[in-house]
From TrEMBL:
Keywords: Heme, Iron, Metal-binding, Monooxygenase, Oxidoreductase. It comes from Psilocybe cyanescens. InterPro entries: Cyt_P450, Cyt_P450_CS, Cyt_P450_E_grp-I, Cyt_P450_sf, Cytochrome_P450_fung. Heme binds at C399. Its cofactor is heme. This is Cytochrome P450. The keyword Nucleotidyltransferase does not apply. Pfam families: p450. Pathway: Secondary metabolite biosynthesis. Belongs to the cytochrome P450 family.
Amino acid sequence: MGTEMGLVSFVCLIEYQQLILIWAASGGIMSVKLLGRLVIIVSSAAVMDELDKKGAIYSDRPILEMGGELVGYSQTLVLIVYGSRFRTYRKHFSRYIGGVKPMQELHPLIEDEARRFLKRTLSAPDDLLPNLRKLAGGIILRLTYGYQVIDGQDPFVNLIEKANDNFNAATVAGAFPVDFFPILKKLPEWLPGMSFMQTARDWAKDTAAMVEVPWAYTKAQMAAGKAPPSFVSTNLENEGSMTADDIRDLRLAASSMYGGGADTTVSAEYAFYLAMVLYPDVQRKAQAEIDAVIGNGRLPTLSDQAHLPYVNAVVTEVLRWNSVAPTGVPHTATEDGYISGYFIPKNSLILANLWNMLHDPETYPDPFTFDPERHIATPKKEAQRDPRKVCFGYGRRVCPGMYLAEASLYSCIAMTLSVFDIEKKVENGVPVTPVHENTSGIISYPKPFKCVIKPRSEKAASLITEEII
């Protein structure tokens, strides 16, 4: 088993590197056979646009044996097959967070949780990543289940983050040979190398807890007559007329909100802090804009967004500079078709090389530099594209929570810049310069880095506590 695992990882790595190297000569689309499976690699935004327009036949998901079938994510939105249940999940999302008007109703909730994040960070600036996880968890758990996270170790955040960590580990390319050789799951578990089955069972329990525990909380609150409005409580107002399948789909759609949105948002927010450490001039310019437009008497709100073009550009550049999902989640073709003149057979695996699209020097000059100005200046070429159209996927699988993600990211960034300075940590008299490196997995984070987060002034520190409800 160890040899097979190493082989699969090695093959995936070599194939991917080769495709990156020769992409420029391939027109942005090419194919390779990987352990007998035809894999189509798309590295061009123009080609992805074609996939988007033909989304009806390029929006299915492959069967991921470990993360999907054995660990249980095949029933959540991220991996569920394209069909009627998928469309039901999407309708639920669309009604609640799928547009400008629904999101406006959630602005107070997002801003309140962002203020709580500021207070936690003021008290524990070294706990940046846990604080960001609680920020994302606080927003999604409140809007989904009507649950407000507590300070310290929150049991709901912990159980859902544990399930998400399992998912990321289960979907690392080559980590589990059962993804390539499904027959392995039918072999006796006493055989060498079959320990993944016990791992899968343990992780499946965490997946079930992610689905059932917050759902049970909301149901109990409703029974007691004290459930605040939320995605679950609102949809269960007519529970008596719902079928068992309706309730099942609602329960799994609710769990998909956290699983599909928290990790990506936290990755982007963490990358923002890294960027501010590495590019202090950007930080000062964004702070100057906030000071000029809003002053120092209150925190920025989502209603200020239209008046802060440079801050908005910082938000956009964070999404481009740090690709939270470098290759996205794989799609499969449900029937034969053609893309850019190339024949795409049914059942082909389609990988979108989002990282390459977001770092294409033809579209984004000097792509490894964090430069918000590129999103303000008039593009020299029509090919200049909004990174958000790449970040949030394509076809029928485009992220249904993109409005929530953008609002959450903006709120975190704008409020942070208004009250905090983010600087390099000094050790033994020497400033420590972090390196922008990322973790592996479907969702990629900047690797841990050190920084100093401190209030910009006594007024800023008092503002944080004054704004907390």
